[in-house]
Write a structure and sequence with these properties.
Layout (H helix, E strand, L loop, with lengths): L1 H28 L4 H14 L6 E5 L10 E6 L9 E5 H4 L2 E7 L4 E6 L14 E6 L5 E6 L11 H4 L14 E6 L5 E6 L4 E6 L5 E6 L11 E9 L2 E8 L11 E7 L7 E7 L36 E8 L6 E7 L1 H4 L22 E8 L2 E4 L21 E7 L5 E7 L6 E8 L5 E9 L12 E6 L36 E5 L44 E5 L35 E2 L4 E2 L5 H25 L4
Parallel strand pairs: 25-26
Antiparallel strand pairs: 1-2, 1-24, 2-3, 4-5, 5-6, 6-7, 8-9, 9-10, 10-11, 12-13, 13-14, 14-15, 16-17, 17-18, 18-19, 20-21, 21-22, 22-23, 27-28
Helix pairs in contact: 1-6
Length: 622
């Protein structure tokens, strides 16, 4: 009888261990649901609206790292809750453009051509939908005629030489969603048209040419960025001057139209060959240069050759500022440095991009782009006197607050990537976050390792656009975490407004939809940054400049370096970058993760218990 009781005890113990193992495995392999992500983001929007979750894209290196994050979410320090992986490289590949449908809680990501990366399953024209409620990641639509895949997969996409010259010319640029959540627009960099898809069913509504398609210099016109405001769609174009190599022809243009491309007109423009400080003190000025292919022959430029792409357009809620994000094409054409991922012979080490952020102020029925003096002058990294221009071109505005977020190079440590929070009413920085660091894991270092920025909160209703010559900049909400600046100076803005022209076409095309499913996986980590810079507001006074004026390049600024222009100490890049971020802010942990450790622990308990159970079951009952 005692033996029978003992056997029943071991039977019960075995059942308990099985239940524990199933529970551990379920928890480990089925992480926090996407519904909890949606709830988490929405709750933060309600409880801490001044510091919501922000999404950006992360560029995966090569093709063997499909477990790496490709789209992630984060918050500003000191209240950041760590990085949240929204999807991986296996599901979407390399992406730049992001657009958030807050009504349906779906985040859209557009494919992007970047050297040494790979496309997702939908190829160069793929747009992916990340459903934060259901947890599914699927191909939303495929933009037609987006070009071929020029990547060379050999040797894990390294050095991928053929991909260099197609940067900014194939796949997709920005994506954006209309304020009524009925349309998604995407820029096709290959045929240079803007495509429109209905939401949520991906019906192809049509496409139209960019605003400069009818200009004599249309060969050099390169569209990229998008932005909606009310019932108008804005898109950005740069005159690349690639065919002429004339720096005097470099310019940025913003066109406004109805959603379908009709009633198009030019509303803002500015020459781009102006002084922007240093890419690194004494080693490369940040002046924009004509597009050039390929970068490997530019030995004399020491890994610095800024080429502008007008990659994002956002508007403040009050309508007193249009903000333009510029991405440096050079950063997507190059590989940063350091074996085993060093550039091939003929290319430089320490290849460093220099993006930018420019404000534009309303005047009459157009906008004035301010180039000098610099308004967003705290977009440096990691400190004043190092990299003067660091933006990766992605912008996001926090609803209800005068706060702009940009993806950036070296926001905290040298040779890293992350985000900088800036005040729109002063241009000064208020927070910085480091997302990755070169030498820890395998990433692009300074070379455009992140992409677009999207705020994961519902957008507030924008006021009816009104025109005014001189904007009055005021905060729209009370700041609670970060320092409130004081006014100290009033610079003068240099800008250009050009008489608008329009070229519109609407061809018929068909969309392609395929579906794949994945479960969104959170990967919490904390990267706490503490700098809270003293802000100095700027109230610009606009001064018009004739559109054909040749910009005068100021004298070179005096070099001043504060830290070495070398990667921070750390291990060589690993052959395969693991999935989970490391607590403490340095990036990724070792190859195992809590899920696999939990499963191993459960299996170990079973391995220990099973022999005991079998032995007890086979003992004689007498």
């Amino acid at each position: 009888m005692l033996v029978g009781a003992r056997q029943r005890f071991y039977d019960a113990l075995l059942v308990l261990l099985v239940v524990v193992l199933v529970s551990i495995t379920t928890r480990a392999t089925a992480p926090t649901t996407a519904q909890s992500f949606a709830d988490r983001f929405s709750e933060v929007c309600r409880s801490r609206p001044e510091n919501p979750y922000v999404a950006t894209t992360f560029a995966p290196r090569g093709g063997r790292r499909d477990r790496e994050m490709a789209v992630l979410a984060f918050r500003a320090p000191p209240n950041d809750d760590g990085l949240v992986t929204l999807t991986t490289a296996a599901r979407v590949g390399a992406c730049y453009g992001l657009a958030y449908d807050s009504r349906r809680q779906v985040l859209y990501a557009g494919s992007f051509h970047k050297r040494a990366t790979h496309f997702g399953p939908a190829g160069p024209g793929g747009i992916y939908a990340i459903d934060l409620v259901s947890g599914q990641v699927r191909t939303f639509a495929t933009v037609p005629n987006a070009g071929r895949d020029w990547h060379q997969p050999a040797n894990d996409y390294h050095p991928d030489m053929a991909a260099r010259e197609h940067t900014g010319k194939t796949s997709l640029g920005d994506v954006d969603i209309s304020p009524d959540f009925q349309e998604l627009a995407a820029v096709n960099l290959y045929d240079r048209r803007i495509y429109r898809f209905g939401l949520p069913n991906a019906e192809l509504l049509g496409s139209f040419d960019h605003g400069a398609a009818g200009e004599p210099w249309a060969e050099d016109a390169r569209p990229y960025g998008l932005g909606y405001r009310g019932d108008r769609l804005y898109h950005g174009v740069v005159r690349s001057a690639q065919s002429t190599q004339s720096t005097d022809e470099l310019a940025a243009f913003v066109y406004e139209s109805a959603y379908d491309g009709s009633d198009m007109r030019l509303v803002a423009s500015a020459p781009l060959h102006f002084d922007r400080g240093w890419i690194w003190p004494g080693s490369g000025r940040a002046i924009w240069l004509p597009w050039k292919d390929p970068p490997g022959s530019i030995v004399r430029d020491s890994g610095r050759y800024p080429q502008p792409m007008l990659s994002d357009i956002v508007f403040t809620e009050s309508g007193d500022q249009m903000i333009l994000g510029f991405r440096d094409r050079f950063g997507d054409m190059v590989i940063y440095t350091t074996p085993p991922n060093q550039p091939p012979p003929g290319e430089n080490f320490y290849n460093t991009p220099a993006g930018d952020i420019l404000p534009a102020w309303p005047e009459g029925d157009g906008w004035r782009i301010q180039t000098t003096p610099e308004y967003y002058r705290d977009d440096y990294g990691p400190g004043p006197g190092n990299h003067d221009e660091t933006s990766y071109g992605g912008l996001g505005l926090i609803p209800g607050y005068p706060r702009l977020v940009t993806s950036a190079n070296s926001p905290r440590d040298i040779s890293s990537g992350g985000a900088i929070w800036l005040r729109t009413d002063t241009g000064r920085d208020i927070a910085r976050l480091q997302i990755y660091k070169f030498g820890v894991g395998d990433n692009f270092g300074k070379a455009n390792g992140l992409g677009d920025v999207e705020i994961l909160c519902p957008a507030r209703e924008s006021p009816t656009p009104t025109a005014t010559v001189t904007p009055t900049l005021t905060a729209t909400a009370t700041e609670t975490e970060l320092p409130t600046p004081t006014v100290t100076d009033t610079p003068t803005a240099t800008s250009t407004v050009i008489t608008p022209t329009a070229t519109v076409a609407t061809p018929t095309a068909t969309s392609t939809m395929t579906a794949t499913v994945t479960v969104v996986t959170p990967t919490p980590t904390v990267t706490v940054l503490t700098p809270e810079a003293t802000a100095t507001p700027v109230t610009p006074t606009a001064t018009s400049v004739a559109p054909t004026t040749t910009p005068v390049v100021p004298a070179s600024p005096t070099p001043r370096a504060t830290v070495p222009d070398t990667p921070a100490p750390g291990p060589s890049p690993t052959p395969e970058m693991p999935t989970l971020p490391k607590t403490g802010g340095d990036y990724f942990v070792g190859r195992s993760d809590p899920a696999s450790w939990s499963i191993l622990l459960g299996l170990l308990l079973m391995a220990l218990a099973l022999p005991i159970w079998l032995r007890q079951r086979h003992e004689p009952s007498g």
